[in-house]
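Hi R.,

Here's the chain you asked about this morning:
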Amino acid sequence: MRRATRDAVRRSSRRAMVSAVRQARQQAAARKRADEGFAMSSPVALMSAAAVVLAGVAFLVTDDSVTSPEQAALAAGPAPVERKVVMEAVKVEPTVQRSDVYVSVYNNSNITGLAGATAQRITTAGWQVVATDNWYGTIPATTIYYPERLKDAAMLLSKDLGIQRVMPAVDPMSMDRLTLIITSDFA
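And here is the predicted structure, written out as tokens:
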């Protein structure tokens, strides 16, 4: 019997406890809290509020006549100016006429016919080849030799043939024409 009494006491205490919890919840829901409201606990919130206040003050202080379209255009700076550019082709006479310049071509290599083949190539380009022969002596690389008055012609011939070495003429070279001495590096 004691056991039955204990079980009955436990059941009634549980019911009482559940009923007490329900009642406490209902009372809490029915009560309004006195401390409810707006709270700013963050510095970010304070700065946001200050920014809104400053924006409002700036709006009130600013004069709307300053922002008229005419004055806004003046404040923006000068408008870009479009300049009209006229380009005309200018025909420039070349300073060197290939057909007016004499060229002597010499072979300074062991390749037979190199001077003749090069002379034909130069003639096709418009130069006036007046001599082809073999050169006796040692020349380090293919070279165009020029008298001082034909320096521009020598530069033009070097461009035509792709020769890098261009030098003033020396004795026994002719001083009235370009002298082209070809070595095996040209072949």
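One quick note: The two ends are 130 Å apart (CA to CA).

Cheers,
M.
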